[in-house]
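DM from R.C. (forwarded with permission)

"hey, sorry to bug you on a friday — could you get me a structure for this? deadline for the figure draft is monday and I only need the backbone to look sensible"
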Amino acid sequence: MVAEMHPHAIELVEYVEDELPQARREEIAAHLATCGVCAEQVELAAAGREALRGTELLELPEDRRDALIMRFALDMDNREIARALGRTDGATKVLIHRAIKQLEEELGND
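My reply, with the result:
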């Protein structure tokens, strides 16, 4: 389990995916230079993203993809993911379940 979660974990995922405006990317880069925990989370997310390049995960809707990256690459629990996504714990559990189910279906692993 990650000892500390960045209050804007979703932005860390977007940072890795290069989906933020340049000014915000620069702010996050400056923060990462001083926060080892966040820098470690970004490195893990980037490594996970690179490993998944060309896979079905990249075809998932953004909220499902982000939830799986936070769960499995950043090792966040459902409660942390729920806070980061602004959802309830139950809705987050369902989101992750549906994302995994969608991947299974796309991969043909019923």
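R.C.: lifesaver. The chain has a mean pLDDT of 76.
me: no worries. The helical segments are 9-16, 22-34, 36-52, 62-73, 78-85, 89-107.
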